[in-house]
């Protein structure tokens, strides 16, 4: 191979999109008419293809047979006239660009129709049809054809397809489009950044195959959640696009322009390419099975005008639901509109996009604004014994935990090295990165010297990785191979100052470091077109601890080398493996030397370091003497006598000091010590820090009265807490922690107050309504209000209206609050308001709870309670805001908002309608079960806590329901892996701690009653028989699904009809009297509880202001009851011998990964709570301390009952 880097087809053409200077916009515009047009004016694309095809009502025959029905690409062959007519309609509307009908023309997509071999031809046909129509219309103005390629049907980051298959698939389709004469290729609706890179490289390969280059436009799709389907945020997506040879970047599909706004702004502000926006016509709604889009042409135009004028957007158009009328409106408003000036001038201000790297989820600047880029070093088989052992054992969970630890410690990037003699490095890297790619939220540094390992890694990593490393040790051939890989995949590079010199390859002196760095820089930038911002030089760290003459100055030379190269090449970055410098010293001495060396390197210009973040100290935490000793060692400040003998050796002094001074772990310092008093107190509230609170309050009392401290300082802190929670930036448990601290502060100040009158801003009487045992929501309102200056009279649960009004009489509050979780509670609230109105009560009423909605409160209930105002509070902070407004402490916002205009039925109304309709009988024709399972006994059994282990039950907890639902840890703006790492760090340890505590303190008293009864169905009814006498005990009457298009399901259908012929040998083992009376099937039933004690413990925590512990304990106990139900259901399946299909993972189990179903009364398929009385009759659950309230609620709250159905077709369904 020649010393010159391999020339490629694109370089020969001289218009490489990406050079060392960035995107070559002007050269590209001169070379391609489409880009030239973009540099002059805003271009308008066409609208949807699919929704237009739909309007033609095509038959199977139009598609060339039923087997191809629904395949749009086949129409290029069977109905080219339809496709041409759609193109024509957009061209007549004035579109500058039309997209080919080839969205799914990749072989791996067409394989679904058996058309994979036709892919290239169908793509070619699509291009030819569009080209023909565009050319007919190009006399009036230039028209362009964009060859459309969609995302395909498989996500590469989720392992549904491999790199090579996807690459070849896009390459094939792109070839057809390029041959067919398209002006550009558009890879659109991309949901995975790894697929983007694969498709871009494949399209470039297709251009090379045919010797014809066209511009590339790539558009990603942000879901309504704000990320791509795989979880990438806009920063990560743009970082990937900017590293690739793409001319236009953009966003299309999934949502309307309103939900694209922030992403379009981000793209326009930070991209060096032209930007496109092709939104859907809003979000669809379903009307008679058809998707209907509501966004009008005028509204679309309004948004696109904003994007062009304010952000400098270059390409407008539409996606799903937009038709020729939308495009006509865009052309009229924007046609011929000059290219926006805004963005050209902005470009220079933002840091170069090539200075960013990204994981699948988020991007990270290589140069941090403050401090340096920290690269975690513990996932390295050479450097970390723990990682090596996990790798050898194939323990991927352990490796992921090790990665998560480094993320928690603050690493920005994770270095991954798996090389070990005798092992297959390619395979190891693939297996580790397959998992890390989706489980690690920060970018990956691929640490290997082998190009084939790098390539394997890059084909699995979404985002933009860093290759560590490239050097000249093996000459230019290998250097060029690695550089070409980095360029192709858009990766950043770590370049080590090592050259071919066999004796002194690793550069030690300043001169050699500078010489090799400059040589590599020149080749990377000039031959390979890699930007300086993408390069991190590693000028090598050597130990300075051996004491021989050769090693004394090595640290100092590295520092000087960084300073020198930085002067010559200001845009490059610098990285070092720090800990090498202290090799061989004691752990404590290493921490100090590493920390001081790092600080010196940073001052010289170091921008990144591979280190263990947990073992670096800030310089201000290192005692002066240790700091000085370390500096003397680094700068080799030996002192010599007259004869040249050493009189002071800094290495010996350093080692000797640490041998003599074994230091304690650094004393925990108060992190708030540096702030002013008022700010410090406010911060203590916001961060929930009780340690040091009383000392600060004592200090504050010298300046302020207790009331002033509360109103002017502490309540301001609580206000910030409310704002943070509202903005999704603070989790519920930490809100409660803040409230606890607030309570502690007020409790400390109370004895020092003259009188308590003027302290409260107002009073609220609050209760959970009659028949409802749920108190957590109401108690959260109590906590938030009472710690924001209000007096709260909390009456408890199951309170009749008479009792609530008696409390109103006694306390004369500013408002009364009612809470309820049950569907039935909405009816009770209405009755309560009628009762109040009839007595002329005019007090403001606040209502909240899961079964309510704003519309029902603001429309129906306001009419009911005509004598006074009634408001809906969606959460505790709404309750606080309403009280602030009602007591004059805040201007009207919630109290004056317009009445909700949407009419929603309440859950209760819907239920009543469904129950009325569902009483009819329409057979669902559910086939019988293959066999009737034989129960181990008939009748009921009690299982007490001696048989039920808390540890076992805890393994069946649905952690998603617990962490997110009960404990309120919200995902907010975190990516999924960040959120998972966050839960791993905060919620998991809490959960494990509670399990241990529950076992030690025995406040959970699990118990179960369950059993088996002979039954038979009779239309919508299920008859339950006495196993002994065979007499009919009672009938469950189950409602039937009656909605249009429903399957008319009913739980009774899953059981054999009365007197039906046997399926197997069940007559031989059935209770004879029950069989004679017509029983033919088996029903299991269960009730589980966690006992009463835990409710009492929770109430004590609440009363003693331990709010956070109260929330944790309450949520834990409720989910433990659910876990016991899940666990006991599994035991019943085992007893019935139908557990053969049970899923092996909990997630699958929670998704009903088993035979049959368990149905609880009150849920969709069996909504009548009053049927609980029949279960009580069967199970006699009073024996384990469970009671039924007058509203058919189980008490204690941590209890749940169900019937268990064995039929394989039994799954959850809605009426």
UniProtKB/TrEMBL annotation:
Species of origin: Meiothermus ruber
Keyword Repeat on entry: yes
Record-given protein name: Methionine synthase
Binding site for methylcob(III)alamin: 771-775, 819, 876
Pterin-binding domain segment(s): 372-635
Record domain B12-binding N-terminal: where: 668-761
Any one GO BP annotation for this protein: homocysteine metabolic process
Domain B12-binding residue range list: 761-897
Pathway in which this enzyme or protein is active: Amino-acid biosynthesis; L-methionine biosynthesis via de novo pathway; L-methionine from L-homocysteine (MetH route): step 1/1
Residues annotated as binding Zn(2+): 253, 319-320
Record bears the keyword Oxidoreductase: no
Binding residue positions for S-adenosyl-L-methionine: 1158, 1212-1213
GO CC field: cytosol
